[in-house]
Amino acid sequence: MTRQRRKKVHDGDTHLKRRWRTKRRTKDLDEINEDIKSENCEKLLNQEVDYDKPGSAQHYCVHCARYFINDQALTEHFRTKVHKRRLKALETEPYTIQESERAAGFGSWVEAKKRKIETQQPLEDSESSDKRMRVESN
Ligand SMILES: [Zn+2]
């Protein structure tokens, strides 16, 4: 055989396919933008025990829309590249129609604001806010 059969030439193209994969598909950035608003954030961090979710849905990263099995896995995730990259991606404010109008020449140019995105507080904090809420309801 003169010509060697080339197999799997697109083997390293995972980054191109990942966008369309649905196996580990999480929320899109615009959905997460909704989630990090304080009232939604609180709800997501104090989820009810759901045995279908990893770790019974008690360890959740709002910014990455991911569940973790325990507290250690969650805090370790906070230190990873994926999480930091996600925080960086969430820093710029979401695109708006107003911004597109400014770009088209209506109004004056305003640079997209940078938000300070911080990793959610460890669980002790959410528990104490939970207690506060209980006190208020009594
Ligand atoms: Zn994360």
Automatic annotation (TrEMBL):
PROSITE patterns: ZINC_FINGER_C2H2_1 (PS00028), ZINC_FINGER_C2H2_2 (PS50157). SMART domains: ZnF_U1. Gene3D superfamilies: Classic Zinc Finger (3.30.160.60). InterPro entries: C2H2-ZF_Maturation_Protein, Matrin/U1-like-C_Znf_C2H2, Znf_C2H2_jaz, Znf_C2H2_sf, Znf_C2H2_type. Residues 128-138 have a biased composition (Basic and acidic residues). The keyword Nucleus applies. This is Zinc finger protein 593 homolog. It comes from Henosepilachna vigintioctopunctata.
